[in-house]
Give the backbone structure.
Amino acid sequence: MFANRVQGDVFIPKGFAVFISNAFAQAAPAAAGGAESSLLSMLPLVLMFVVLYFVMIRPQMKRQKEHKAMIDAIAKGDEVVTSGGLLGKISKVGESYLTLEVAAGVELQVQRGAVVQVLPKGTIKS
């Protein structure tokens, strides 16, 4: 019924009907404003990075700065909450560790960075 045939560089075996025509690449038209076009195509990418900076990066940096200021201002007698949920009064302040009194006669040593909140004085008693 069908004979083996060669079409271009492609060999088509006997019995295979080819319904797809050959596709040839077309040359792209020359761009008149090459520099303008490339700048306009990069504009959405640049806008995405600007939005990302103001929505995510800048607020995170602000929070880190506030947390560092809070950690540096910790003093003996402050009542704090740690990242593990412990509430206690600071009994000793070291360079990188704090001693936290969580109950009468029970003291724990925690890292300064583990403090997430400084509570108002008298919060633990009530």
Q: What stands out?
A: The first helix runs from residue 34 to 72. Helices lie at 34-72. Residues 4 and 14 are 5 Å apart (CA to CA). The beta strands are 5-7, 10-12, 79-82, 87-93, 97-103, 106-111, 115-119.
